[in-house]
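Entry for the shared binder. Reason: the reviewer on the internal report wants the predicted structure included alongside the sequence.
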Amino acid sequence: MAISQFLEFKRVQCKDCFRCLRECPVKAISFADQHAQIIEDRCILCGRCMHVCPQNAKIVHGDFDRVLMMLRSGKKVIASVAPSFVSCLGFKSFAPLRKVFKKMGFFDAEETARGAEWVTREYSKLLEKGEMKNFITSACPSACRLIQEYFPQALPYLAPVVSPMVAHARLIHAEHPDAEVVFFGPCLAKKREASESGEVSAVITFSEMLDDHFAFDIKSMVEQVSLEEDCADVESDNIDYKAKGYPVTEGIIRSFTTLPQGYRYMTVDGYKRCMEVLENIENYEGVFMEINICPNGCVNGPCAVLPQGGTTKAKMELLDYVDNQRELHPQASQPAQSEVDFGWVYPRVTNRSRKVTDKEIEEVLQRTGKMSPADELNCGVCGYRSCRGKAWAVINGYADIEMCLPYMRKKAESLAVAVVHKSPEGIIIVNSDLEIVDANATAMEMLGMGGTPERLTPQPLNDFFSPLDFYLAYTQKRNVEVHKQFIRATQRYVDITICNMEENKLIFGQMKDVTEEVNYEKKLEHLRDETLETTDQVIMKQMRVAQEIASLLGETTAETKVALLNLKKMLQQEK
């Protein structure tokens, strides 16, 4: 799948996590090799994945190198700066920031609110005509993309007017045909809008401006700029102060001098509320909807830099700025008419996702063990709202079938259970009270336990043999080897490998039946004892025989000696 030209994920940091997919309103994220990827033709660039990513694995593709090339080439480059610069960059007015841009090499810098003022005027013209059953604002590019791609039934109600960014760019080009316009703001979706409009050369977000890799130290440059030197610039600002409130909720509604009759004016923010409204758009009539994908408006954009105090503080700072601008110039001198065309036709957008049949869905569900609707948990762990939604993603190649946690858990458990219960060795699980809480059939046979593993109730280990070694393994948090443990009930001997499962407060015992070995050793021992006893008897008997022979030999020798002496004496006398 092609890498998005606006946003991508770092593969090293993105793995085995579906949090971004769970938060993505349009499921524009696919998974391959356990890594997330943007599906560019489905993405509305709302930036939700950036907010929720626990690994900060999202990369926003910047345009700053392109801007540097334009500045170095000597082109006339004009910055269009969104009003939320107040909360994101910490300025109280635009004047010092304008001077900073000029120090960077920009020909000039203006507030995008100038374009917002004209957008409001275009809205007023359309509302006065009263030809639209419902009216949806078109200032939020993510919302527009959402409608174009996913809620085409709402397209007839989307105002055919460009966003403030594009409106401002057209105003600049009308005055400086040779100028390059660079937009600065908190919105990621502006990057694609700029590319599609052909009016804006590049988009740099506020978070990019404050990044360490940004070529200019904005804060240091601002410190060198004296606000008093730019008072004339402030006084010459002809933008209607009300248009500078666009970045907050109700900012568009408050930008009207008078609200045209015939419509009920409402604000809708956050993607969930937006999708709910768009889904039911045909059920409404005479409703003006100021719609923003980001909760609380653009001050909370995906590339905004929130001050201490968060979104609420950012909204307060921007409203304070609007109030201050009202005091400086309560009435702008903008001409009532302009030759610039602010119209725009939002076409239907389609993506490459294909429709799937119920049969295909059923086949994928059955592969994950979901044979009936009752098996469809719809737990949402995989990131999809339902098991059928996940099956749709699998068929389209956006998801792996293994992303189903209940399926994988059931599969793992079935394999683990099969291994345990089919094991030729006995396996027991003992709790901290030294009770057997689980055992396979082999272990139950070894121990002489009645029943089956499925109906096993906790039984004291002491009923079968001494629990001392299990107690030592648990309290000393170590593994223990026990040899020739005697089991009273079955008269068996077992070797036991005892493992401490500290994280579960359990003790695992694996028993090997060594009864035959022990009995064989006993037989050998008995045979040795009998052999030794027989050997002792033979030796004693041999000793007795030797002694008797020695005794007989001694008597015979003595008699022979006596006879010979007598014979010698007799012979001597005959001489």
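Summary line for the report: Residues 230-236 have pLDDT under 50 and may be disordered.
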